[in-house]
Specification:
Blueprint: H1 2-33, H2 41-59, H3 62-86, H4 91-114, H5 137-140, H6 146-154, H7 159-177, H8 179-189, H9 191-196, H10 201-225, H11 239-249, H12 254-273, E1 278-279, E2 283-284, H13 287-291, H14 293-302
Antiparallel strand pairs: 1-2
Amino acid sequence: MEYFDTFVSILGSAIRLSIPLLFTALAGLFSERAGIFDIGLEGKMLASAFAAACVAYWTGNAWAGLGAGILVSIIFSLLHGFASITNRGNQIVSGVALNFIAAGLTIVLGTAWFNQGGRTGQVPPEGRFSGIILPGADMMHDVPIIGPLYANVISGNNILTYIAFLMVPISWWVLYRTRFGLRLRAVGENPGAVDTAGVSVVWLRYRALIVTGFLAGFAGTYLSIAQSAAFINNMSAGKGYIALAALIFAKWKPVPVMFACLLFGFLDAFANFMQGKSLPMIGEVPVQIFQALPYILTCVLLAGFIGVARPPKAGGVAYTKER
């Protein structure tokens, strides 16, 4: 039973750690399906985390913080669209530039406003998204197997966690069951055909980037006022790149994206659990090895060990309207 309790604890932690990855990977799913490669997901997450923490700190309102995080993330998405869609610039360079802007701007503004080396002030409890105890969690706690899973894994998470998993079927429905989703996938494969049908490629791609900014805003907000109680310098710590790896691993499909993010979250949770632990016949292993596991898996996946992952055919290519 002790091993099961340990597994439940790691699983609960894995879900909490996978949420920012899930939001960000779904965000990248919309932009890349529309043919816009978005390396700037890391920057959007970082900028929205900073904005959410600042507004939540000043107002004491978590929802106001979420709104600020989403707004800033959408602004970054529009900047990316202006550079890569309107001006037909290189999408990779534009995304990397946004990452640098977010990393530098959050430090400068954080130091100027809070004088704590780029860190914001501690967000008050009313300015954070706290855990929600679902009905019957206390009564089911002692029920074998099902009870601990319900009480410690399903129950007790904040509302953004449930929204993240709800976004998976919503994203699937939007992409595969709506006119917008059909056109979005088409513009990522053959924008010329979409243009010939009388649909604006530019406006469609901008709308995809707005959805990307919306979802990335949730990811940043989760980092600063749900998982933590303040913004910390570079707190995204490469999660945007890991989310991109999960997106490629899942071959740009919503449900596999969820499982890929859970896998990365599980590795992160396992690394936290193994701190100070010893392995049989080996002894204590440096914790840095376990902390590196998600990044090692990222390299392995991107090296092509998952089979052929074909991105949208028009991905990364600026569209020029035929005369």
